[in-house]
Amino acid sequence: MPDSGTAQWVRLCELNALAPTDARGFDLQGRGVDDLFVVRRHALLRGYINSCPHWPGASLPWRKHAYLDQGANHIVCHGHGAKFTLDDGLCVSGPCAGQHLQAVALRIEEGRYVSALLPMPR
After folding, report:
1. Class for domain 13-110, per CATH?
2. Which of 1, 28, 53, 80 would you label with 122, given CA atoms 20 to 30 Å apart?
3. Closest listed residue to residue 1, CA positions, set 53, 60, 45, 57
4. What per-residue confidence (pLDDT) applies to 2?
């Protein structure tokens, strides 16, 4: 995402488009690679930049929307198998252990839309 001094709320999707346990990526710049992704696990809703701290710029999923492990307990980097917690993006195993995914602020608008606070290009 471009660096900027200003930020803007951008509507991503309707909340009901995310299953109770789900992850969904968003290609906001039309590059064919997700810029960010949203994780939902019941009441937990978190957003992260799609970039592994071990290899900045490396996309995490092995296919579109495939951010979670089989049990949907961790976010996984397909490149190195690093595992991250859902609630704060902390790497708990792999080459970037102790590092965090870059969080994106989220909010629910009008009781049904998921929006993210994103830097705007200058």
Report:
1. mainly beta
2. 53
3. 57
4. 46
